UniProtKB/TrEMBL annotation:
Residue stretches making up the SnoaL-like domain: 134-230
Region annotated Disordered, chain positions: 102-123
InterPro entries: NTF2-like_dom_sf, SnoaL-like
Organism: Chryseobacterium rhizosphaerae
Ranges that cross the membrane: none
Residue ranges with Polar residues bias: 102-111
Protein name per the record: SnoaL-like domain-containing protein
A Pfam family reported for this protein in Swiss-Prot or TrEMBL: SnoaL_2
Origin: domain of life: Bacteria
Length: 250
């Protein structure tokens, strides 16, 4: 069984409460800071969920070496969109990261946080696309080199799924202008993970949004060397005194 299929079964297990057979209970490292360590932390979480309240709809699933990552529409203490990443060793999940955001939208262009294509293409371009996505985040989001935007995005040929931003460079420009007028700042500081399969690449980054310590997960679809579609989730990182494990968000 492929790692991404195991990831799908693990996530569906949240809904069905079946035993999480694909986890190495001795080594499992949890990076969701609202969940306790290991298998015991998962069991404690399940005990808090009212029976039948949780829904898991996996929209996209990918695999990159020892990693599998999924784009998920949840009802999990309320409707949320999430990205989940699992790292596997010897066929078992040994580490998990995620990023959850309350569901909202549609955005100014009418797109939801999850719609759009799910088809994986260009498997031979995985590594080149990962380099491109990392460079985009470094140049534009970390270093603010906005003059380089057209190197990565071809004008209006850019479909945006962020609930606050419209399509194309024009939509991005309007959103940035609004944020500036409201004194809202967004700063990416560190890229922690870059994972991809074919035309899709996920980056997991750390920074600040509105002055708050924040985790940014960005999923890019790349076509002919340009970013043509983008989905994301933005989640505030809780203060350390509120963590339920000591593994950190990343």
């Amino acid at each position: 069984m492929k790692n991404k299929q195991k990831a799908i079964e693990l996530l569906n297990g949240i809904e069905t409460r079946v035993p999480l057979d694909h986890i190495n209970e001795e080594k499992y490292i949890q990076h969701n800071l609202n969940i306790g360590e290991g298998h015991a932390g998962l069991e404690a979480l399940f005990s808090q969920l009212p029976k039948g309240s949780t829904k898991v709809n996996i929209i996209r699933a990918f695999e990159d070496g020892d990693y599998a990552f999924c784009h998920v529409d949840y009802n999990f203490f309320g409707p949320k969109i999430g990205f989940d990443i699992f790292r596997f060793e010897e066929g078992k999940a040994v580490e998990h990261w995620d990023n959850l955001q309350e569901t909202s939208g549609p955005n100014p262009s009418g797109h939801t946080m999850t719609d759009g294509t799910t088809t994986i293409t260009d498997p031979d371009k995985t590594e080149a696309n990962k380099v491109l996505a990392r460079s985009f985040v470094e140049d534009i989001l970390v270093n603010g080199k906005m003059d380089k935007l057209t190197h990565y995005i071809d004008g209006e040929n850019y479909t945006q799924h962020n609930p606050q931003i419209g399509d194309g460079l024009s939509g991005l420009g309007k959103a940035l202008e609004y944020m500036a007028s409201q004194g809202i700042t967004m700063q990416y500081d560190t890229i922690h993970l870059v994972l991809g399969e074919g035309n899709f690449v996920l980056t997991a980054s750390e920074g600040k949004f509105g002055g708050k310590h924040t985790s940014f997960y960005d999923l890019f679809r790349i076509e002919n060397g340009k970013i043509v579609e983008h989905w994301d989730t933005i989640e505030e990182i809780p203060a350390k005194e509120n963590w339920k494990n000591n593994n950190g968000k990343f």
